[in-house]
Structure formats: structure tokens, C-alpha cells
Amino acid sequence: MPRPSAAREAAAPTTPVQRERARRILRVAARLGADRGLDSVRMADVAAEAGVSLATLYRYHPTKHHLFAALMLEYARELGPDQTADEDDPVEAVAAMMADACRSMLARPLLGRAMIVSINAIRAESQTTGFDLRGRILAAAGITDPTPDDLQLTGIVEQTAYGVLSWAVMGELTPDEAQDSMRRACRLLLAPWSD
Predict the structure, then answer these.
(1) Could you tell me how many helices (H) and strands (E) the chain has, helices first?
(2) Entry pTM
(3) Burial class (CB in 10 A: 0-12, 13-18, 19+), 32
(4) Which of 40, 89, 110, 195 stands the most exposed, by the fewest C-beta atoms within 10 Å?
């Protein structure tokens, strides 16, 4: 079966049955990605194990990168402030959340790499990924009305997170080093929020 064009928009599930089917696809992709890595996951295997047709899989995810980028989006939706962080210190709240994100992604390094590579590939194709890490950072810091400076700082933290995670999934940093680097970067970059 020929693969559909990556240029078309992915379909969004609208009914409860479709949403469950989409969740099942992502669960299978996460398991296969964690076990095999991006290059060894075949879309046909994802479709078969999820119990959907290959056409259905391609309707929701036009390419393998779209599939693993969708996993990254699901992962990002679960990110939130660390409940053990000091709520009065926005810098430590963000540092804790970002270090936890590193720990969580690097717990399954092959899947972490698949998601990072895929979100970067989608970003290279278009400016829209649906990935709102900046919003999560602002929420963790308790900032509801960000200034242009706040937005710039969150953008730099987001870029730093991609760099740290990219180095870690490529084996250049251990998970502990990645967490430590992310905490330190947040503390340095977000120091103006401590004033």
C-alpha cells in the first residue's frame, strides 16, 4: 500500500471509539519505540498490534515522525509542576519539573530518542507542532500574565531542554547528568524570576 503524503493534515479522532483507537495506537507505538527504537519500528507493526488498518494509522499519523511526535505531545500534556517543589520559588518549581521531565524521558532512552528526533523532524517541516512547553514552564512558575521577557526566558529554557535531552538520548550525558544540567540551566536562566 503506498504511503500517504506527509503534507496532508492528520485526522483528529472525534468520537469516543476513535479516541480509544488513537490512544491504543499511541500505547503500542510507545511500547514498540521503547523496545526497538525509531528506525526499527514499522508502521505496519504498529497498526497490526493496535488492531487497526494501516490506512487508519496513516489517517491519524501520516508518517512515523508524526506518530512519535504525537507521543511527545501526549507526554507534554502530563508535565506539570512537581508537587514536592517549593511553591513560593518559581525557579525551583520549574527546575524540578524540567529535571523530572528529563528523568522520565530518559527512563526509556530509545523512546525518548524517537520522540526528540520526531518532534525535531516535524518542526523542520512546519512551525506548528502543538507542543507547548513554554506554557507548562509558565504554569509551573505561577506566571499567568507573562511579559515579553518572561516569554523569551521560557523560550531559552525550552531550547536548552531540547539540547540537554538530545545530548542525553545520543549517549553524551547520563540521565543524572541531564537532570543536573537541566536544574542548573533553569536556575541560571530564570534567576530574574527570583528577584
Answers:
(1) 9, 0
(2) 0.80
(3) buried
(4) 195
List pLDDT tens digits, range 4-55: 444 566 778 889 999 999 999 999 999 999 999 999 999 999 999 999 999 9
Helix 148-169, helix 109-125: angle, nearest 10: 130
One-letter amino acid identity for 163?
A: G
The type of residue at 62 is: P
pLDDT given at position 104: 86
Q: Distance of CA 175 to CAs 38, 67, 99, 130, 192, Å?
A: 20, 25, 10, 26, 27
pLDDT in tens, 63-81: 999 999 999 888 877 776 6
Cα 127 → chain centroid: 15
pLDDT at 164 > cutoff 80: yes
CA 35 to each of CA 3, 58, 104, 114, 156: distance values in angstroms, whole numbers, following the listed order: 24, 22, 16, 11, 32
Q: Specify whether the backbone of 51 is left (phi greater than 0), alpha (psi in -120 to 50) or beta.
A: left
Which residue in the block uniquely carries the three cell numbers 515579553? 148
